[in-house]
Design brief:
39% helix; 0% strand; globular; 3 helices; single chain; mainly alpha; 54 residues
């Protein structure tokens, strides 16, 4: 399954009334590492500037 199809099950139960819709990017560990090293790429930006929610 490609990464753009993986978040679909998570979007069905999200309440968007108070928050903007999330931008879910579901990657395998290998895909994450490959995209984290590319510049520019949203994954690299998220790693550099994002906030951990885990």
């Amino acid at each position: 399954m490609t990464y753009h199809k993986r978040p679909r099950p998570f979007n069905t139960g999200w309440d968007y009334s108070e928050l903007p819709p999330p931008e879910l990017i579901c990657l395998t560990p290998a895909e994450f590492e490959e995209k984290r090293r590319r510049d520019p790429h949203i994954v690299r930006t998220a790693v550099d500037e994002g906030v951990s929610i885990a």
